[in-house]
Amino acid sequence: MPPGREALEAILLVGGQGTRLRPLTIGTPKPLLPTAGVPFLAHQFAKAAAAGITHVVLATAYRASMFAECFGDGAAFGLEITYVHEAEPLGTGGAIRNAAAGLRSGPDSPVVVLNGDVLSGHDISAQIDLHRKSDAAVTLHLVEVADPARFGCVPTDADGRVTAFLEKTPNPVTNRINAGCYVFRRSVIDEIPPGQVISVERVTFPDLISAGALVMGYPDSSYWLDVGTPEAFVQGSCDLVRGRLASGALPGAPGDLLALEGAAVDPSAQVCGGTVVGAGARVAADAYVSGSVLFDAASIGAGARVSGSVIGRGTVVGEGVVLDGVVLGDEVHVAPGNELRSGLRVWPGQTLGLTCVRFSSDA
Ligand code: GDD
Ligand code: MG
To answer: Does residue 58's CB lie within 6 angstroms of at least one atom of ligand 1?
Structure first.
């Protein structure tokens, strides 16, 4: 912990099903997907620990037991982890209230709450400082994006006070959105009704604002990405590998490629763009792999061209195959000569013989 800082607590919301990332999330929850060589959450743990957070409460629902198997007591990450489980998903607000059972902070202490699928370069300590200085009920990290309708739209006044919270509105009034990192005054969490399905975005924040509570915005323009779609997941992994976002959990120095233990890349192959070659994965002669994530034991055949894609664990990509922007689940076999593009997703265990996928742009 940085000198002179008090011990802090955080709640990490990790109970979602990761539907938009299927088939990758069929067997593995989104926060555990291998990202730049480690489970995604390891990057958030490193960031939390660097900000002085010593105790993390994981709010789990979907495939809950896998989290403890992966992270244990948290000592390996310089943290103490408490696991709190929802028998039925309680929504983001219900999950935060439920996780409060694991907190130790007093009623006036700041508690950090993080969505479990966000990569961010913002300074959590500065956000907490603003929260304390303003004596706010909640302080929200805000970023500007080109497509605010996909997020929580958050207008503020000239002093930075949040004036409304409009979750996934078709008519956003600003490009400034909720970035998924909140600092709550502990007592505000305790006021959320227990044991109910509640959305913090659709109910708790709008209710606090209309009741006149001080909800502050902490705007920031550093790196930010929600990895909830396949394109964003690949982007996030590549950005971490290349060092566009520094992470204390990256295994090794940033570079154009991250090859994990036992990975074998033929000297005539070209692997670049922040690609991860998973443990025991192979890239054969003359293959070209750019900006992709190869899970453990994946195999890329000779002369194949792979870009912007996720290749599942144990999946075999045949000779000369072209993959562009696709997701292959675990243990898929793609016969030589296939060409798959444009967001195609293949469920685990499938075998693709020679398939002809034609697009109008090919004509
Ligand atoms: N424990 C628990 N229980 N966690 C949940 C539940 C639940 O019932 N529902 C969702 N979560 C977790 C997810 O695992 C994820 O880490 C986080 O809450 C946010 O859920 P997403 O499904 O990823 O939401 P989103 O990306 O559509 O929107 C949210 O994030 C945006 C920023 O990335 C909202 O907070 C938006 O307002 C925000 O702009
Ligand atoms: Mg999300």
So the answer is: no
